[in-house]
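To the wet lab folks,

You asked to see what we're planning to order before we commit. Fair enough. Below is the target structure as tokens, and below that is the sequence we designed to fit it. If anything looks off to you, flag it before the synthesis order goes out.
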């Protein structure tokens, strides 16, 4: 499954907080080189772990979502289940993201 871009706060509320599905949310910024470097690997994870929905949000463009989530660094990966945040991984640490998926979402 592809990683889907969240483009508004309303979409964030619906697809992340309103979803019963397990979700990985990639909080990134366009200028962030670490975000760009890990993006293809996150796409690979989205194809590997198909029961999980993968989204990304540019927290510089949708600042209120970034503030609401308390994003302090980019990238930050947040894992949600039943609309509740379970955990977060700060930084481009692919093994930690994958372990979080295995531990908390599957």
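Sequence we intend to order:
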């Amino acid at each position: 499954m592809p990683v889907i871009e969240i483009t508004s706060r309303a979409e964030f509320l619906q697809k992340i907080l309103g979803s019963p599905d397990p979700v990985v949310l990639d909080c990134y910024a366009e200028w962030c080189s670490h975000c760009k470097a890990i993006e293809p690997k996150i796409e690979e994870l989205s194809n590997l772990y198909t029961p999980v929905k993968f989204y990304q949000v540019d927290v510089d463009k949708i600042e209120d979502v970034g503030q609401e989530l308390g994003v302090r660094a980019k990238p930050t990966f947040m894992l949600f289940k039943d609309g509740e945040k379970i955990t977060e991984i700060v930084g481009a640490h692919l093994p930690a993201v994958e372990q979080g998926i295995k531990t908390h979402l599957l």
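Structural context that might help your review: The CA atoms of residues 86 and 104 lie 7 Å apart. The helical segments are 9-17, 33-48, 63-69, 94-105.

Thanks,
Computational group
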